[in-house]
């Protein structure tokens, strides 16, 4: 006998998008399409941006404490705090990778086994996604546990979620894989097929993904907005999430040649500049695709943004978690 889902407003909103104000209902066009631009602000029962044409989604309330009514400074301060928190998590996961060779020598372990300790953060994300933190610390604060798990299930069975997560996981996996490979091969002596870099030299090489991530994030932000604006202007002010996806083609344009250049540079022991450019091209492409994929899923399921964000992070961390277990044995076996 099938168990009936709880009739909570949060679950209904996730499935139908019905948890909205009358103004928001004027924006929704069905099939995740929304009205984002009007040509004449007069007589339009919607709140618009300062340009008088762009529709604010979601519509701000009249409450001055509504986060949508916060000042520009307050919004960006909170955004900076959240971004810093996210940065610390990824930085803590990746900062130890350049040191795995030295740690292996000190601890008497292979670099592959040393890298296992960096994967424990995935367990923390799993506990967060499964709601263990919520169960322990917030009884009665959020929706019921059953409703929370139902929302997670309702998100993951949506048609576009799993294929999108799979694409993102495969893309991000090799970002972590390259991090591990570079630390090993760059420090390996030339007599053994490596580059013989010093510890400082390896550290300097890791500025490559830092620069690529920064450029990719900035470019991806404005390029995705450009794609969205162009789609809206061509479709009478209507926006659909699929307008985000063309950015993935541009991301692939950098990712595929970047991986090929990096692989050839390592295989044929070319100059380290080839490694740097191939690595940078790939990471730049990953960031463009990351912005597009994240925005696409959040636009598709705005009422399930928490669950969508959790699954995106889970796909990213699981793919990075697994590559450390098979990449080095694979490389040692096949060269």
Query: What fraction, in percent, of the residue positions are helical?
Result: 55-70%
How would you spell out the order of helices and strands?
HHEEHHHHHHHHHEHHH
Head-to-tail CA distance between termini: 54 Å
Quaternary organisation of the protein chains: single chain
Look at the structure and give the mean pLDDT: 75
The beta-strand count equals 3
Range of strand content: under 5%
- Give the overall silhouette: elongated
Tell me the strand order in the biggest sheet.
1-2-3
| Class derived from helix and strand content | mainly alpha
What's the gyration radius in Å?
Answer: 23 Å
Question: The biggest beta sheet, please?
Answer: 3 strands, antiparallel
What's the short version?
By secondary structure, this protein is mainly alpha-helical.
What does this 3D model show about the protein?
- The protein is an all-alpha fold.
- It has 14 helices and three strands.
- It has helices spanning 9-16, 22-27, 72-94, 100-107, 111-114, 121-129, 132-137, 145-156, 161-187, 199-205, 207-234, 246-267, 272-300, 305-334, and strands spanning 28-30, 33-35, 238-239.
- Strands 1-2-3 form a three-stranded antiparallel β-sheet.
- A hairpin with a 2-residue loop joins strand 1 and strand 2 (33-35).
- Helix 11 (207-234) runs parallel beside helix 13.
- The protein is elongated, with a radius of gyration of 23 Å.
- Mean pLDDT is 75; it is low at 1-20 and 22-26.
């Amino acid at each position: 006998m099938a168990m009936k889902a709880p009739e909570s407003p949060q679950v209904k909103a996730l499935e139908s998008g019905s948890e909205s104000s009358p103004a928001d209902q004027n924006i929704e066009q069905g099939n995740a399409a929304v009205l984002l631009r009007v040509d004449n602000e007069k007589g339009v029962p919607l709140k618009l941006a300062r340009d008088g044409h762009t529709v604010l989604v979601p519509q701000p309330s009249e409450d001055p404490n509504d986060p949508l009514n916060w000042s520009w400074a307050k919004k960006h301060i909170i955004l900076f705090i959240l971004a810093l928190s996210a940065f610390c998590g990824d930085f803590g996961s990746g900062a130890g990778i350049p040191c795995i060779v030295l740690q292996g020598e000190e601890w008497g372990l292979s670099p592959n086994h040393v890298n296992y300790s960096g994967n424990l953060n995935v367990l923390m994300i799993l506990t967060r996604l499964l709601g263990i933190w919520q169960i322990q610390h917030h009884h009665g604060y959020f929706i019921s546990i059953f409703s929370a798990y139902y929302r997670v299930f309702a998100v993951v069975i949506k048609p576009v979620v799993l294929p999108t997560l799979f694409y993102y996981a495969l893309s991000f996996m090799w970002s972590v894989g390259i991090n591990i490979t570079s630390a090993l091969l760059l420090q390996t002596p030339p007599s053994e097929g490596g580059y013989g870099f010093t510890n400082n030299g390896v550290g300097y090489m890791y500025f490559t993904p830092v620069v690529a991530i920064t450029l990719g994030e900035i470019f991806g932000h404005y390029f995705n907005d450009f794609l969205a604006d162009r789609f809206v202007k061509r479709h009478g002010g209507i926006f659909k999430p699929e307008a985000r996806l063309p950015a993935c083609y541009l991301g692939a344009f950098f990712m595929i040649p970047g991986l090929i250049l990096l692989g050839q540079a390592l295989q044929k022991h070319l100059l380290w500049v080839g490694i740097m450019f191939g690595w940078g091209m790939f990471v730049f492409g990953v960031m463009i695709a990351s912005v597009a994929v994240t925005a696409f899923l959040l636009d598709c399921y705005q009422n399930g943004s928490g669950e969508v964000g959790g699954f995106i992070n889970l796909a990213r961390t699981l793919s990075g978690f697994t590559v450390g277990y098979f990449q080095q044995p694979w490389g040692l076996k096949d060269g």
